[in-house]
Amino acid sequence: MPVAVPELGSFNFVPETKEDLEWAELVTLDFALLDTPEGRQQLIQTLIKAVREAGFFYVKNFNISQERVNRQFALGKRFYELPLEEKLKYVPEGLDNGKFNGYIPAGRRILDPVSGLRDRVEMYNIPKFDGYFTHNHPVLIQEHLAEIEEFSKAKVLDPLHVLLANALELPEDYFLKLHKYEEKSEDHLRYMKYSKYTPEENLKHGKLWVQGHTDLGTFTLLFRQPVAALQIKNHITGEWKWVKPQDGTLTVNACDALSFLTGGYVRSTIHRVVSPPKDQEHVDRLGLLYFQRPNNNVRLATVQDSPVLQREGYTQNDFEKSGNPVPTMEEWTFAKQKWQRTKNIVRSDPKYETAQILPGWREKVYA
């Protein structure tokens, strides 16, 4: 008997916090400036400042309507309303070994060893539509798969790759060639849910939902949602500050693979998720994200063709400095994913937090 698919309905965002938080000062790239040489030059300078200093930045006029974004949030909301037993049918085989497409249930990490309080983070990852991945989803997702595919394929990131190539005095298509959509890579769209804790529970785990970390890919896109919880660590000052949700923008952060490819010139952003302020503490936090990664066969060696990197002395990444083999993107992805998905780890376990995941690379977490 076929399962009835409910209508998505509208998605209602909660009001923004009224608390006076210490917001990070982030730059905004306006893609409307791409049309003129002067505008492009301004964007290049802005992008370099962003990826060298704060790591996070905003993008506006990115050619996806708010209506389409709202539809994806509505889909994510409806997905998390499915019964747990239905969602558990889509846990990836090999989750403990780094597989991640499908449903990742909450509770894999112990936040407070005294009370046994565990994380309440759920994820649903939808892989690329490039022919390399089997799309086996709940009926709700399957019925809207064409819409999800169209959303996932939006050319949001291409301008960033062209601008970065310009900034490093490389051919414009240099980074585009490393991120061809038709070639296999581990990009994915994610619906992510952080279920709320009581005020008492938040105190037990120090109001820290997800410890400071870096993402493993090229760029991560965070579509605006107003529950304040994301904080970033400034590369220069070391201070943690809140990331403000801004209307009509994407929040973007630079990630590990881009740092490797540029010998550390681009800094991988350190960020964490904390308990929302008191006027938002009573709601769950739903995230809509897109994770981009270079094609699986790309070796993460420092680009040697950039006059800028040569002049500035960014000619080796940590793998190259250590004399160990430089991994491909596929090797790096699954090494880090396996580490991230380690089950029943107690927060602050030093054996986990500084584990060597590949020869020449020890992981790091930040308070």
Automatic annotation (TrEMBL):
A Pfam short name: DIOX_N
Domain Non-haem dioxygenase N-terminal: start-end pairs: 29-126
Entries under InterPro entries matching the protein: DIOX_N, IPNS-like_FE2OG_OXY, IPNS-like_sf, Iron_ascorbate_oxido_reductase
Gene3D superfamilies, A to Z: B-lactam Antibiotic, Isopenicillin N Synthase, Chain
Top-rank taxon: Eukaryota
Location of the Isopenicillin N synthase-like Fe(2+) 2OG dioxygenase domain: 194-293
PANTHER family named in the record: 2-OXOGLUTARATE (2OG) AND FE(II)-DEPENDENT OXYGENASE SUPERFAMILY PROTEIN-RELATED
Identification of the protein by name: Fe2OG dioxygenase domain-containing protein
